[in-house]
Specification:
Strand content: over 45%
Structural class: mainly beta
Number of helices: 3
Number of strands: 19
Largest sheet: 18 strands, antiparallel, barrel
Order of helices and strands: HEEEHEEEEEEEEEEEHEEEEE
Shape: globular
Low-confidence stretches: 1-5
Mean pLDDT: 84
Radius of gyration: 22 Å
Amino acid sequence: MFILRLFFILLFPYLIFLQDRNFEISGHFLNSFGFLYFEDVEISSNNFYLGRSAFRVNFIKKKEFLKIDGSIDFNFLYGFYKNFFQHLNNTLKITEDSILAIDIRKLYIVLKYRFLDLYIGRQLLKFGEGYILNPLNLFSGIDFSEKTFTRVGVDAFRSKLQISNMGYLEGIFVSKVNVKKSGYVLKFISSIFGWDISFIGCYREELDWLSFGFSYKGDIVGGLYGEMLYNYAVEPTKRFYNFLVGFDYSFYQKILLRLEYAYNSFDINNFSRNEISFLPNFPFLSKHYFISQVTIFSNLIDNITFLILHEITSKKNFIIFSYKKSIFSNVELSSTLRYSNRDFFGFEFDTVCFLIDIILKF
């Protein structure tokens, strides 16, 4: 705890420096604790403590022709978190029982000139409309340590060109620094009759894969959305397609229902271990998935969410139940229970995880 206090004392002058430079600053302090249980006959204990103290700083500065946007996480990890993440190169050993992990979620500048915007740096690139399963999302993977399934930033150069009222065209180069393989993306986004549509073409270097896809989102009774990707490779066995269709609907602004179905046509036996990690929807590599999510807003300060990700072929499940309560305008208390069947994520055992989070926003 002493080290945590010392860290905030040292960080405070830096925040004052940003404030003096007219940066808009926000963020939160998170204190999280819980346990992880799994069944494994090769170890003596099946219960593990989960501890995390995190400080997130978001800063943004806007001018007429320039924008700077960043978000950095400072995570103090204990227990199983420490053992699981300590091999990463962004960690620093603090004590025998804790490490500090620094995660630059995003840090980029935007240069604006008339109808052209240039984005340079680490960015959150999300293509498509899927919540967890997302065939078009070829670069920014999911951070499963986050209960909200946030995406991981990638280092990229992105240009955004406005094409009159038709929409805009994006050209993206993704560095291989943090995704191992670089890639080139061309993306067109438009809105037609109230429907948002996009088309992308992507070439992933070294893998020598060429991918094409599209997404759509609009309203028919409720929200209807979907996306599809086709991957072309020189070897016929490595050609495949993926698609997702989804529907969401709000009942009396109190209950939000989300339903999604996703299909993967690839056979993982045709790919090397390295190639498997670059397949769409990784680590969800079975053929059929169904997602059902219900969020109940009982009032302005409480909500309950139940989510089930069902693997249709093998009938395995990934289940999340969470409750969140706003104690004050800037203080939240939440509890989350996760369960996953044996082999759902490639493990050899069922897992149960329970977490309690206290968040102080500023």
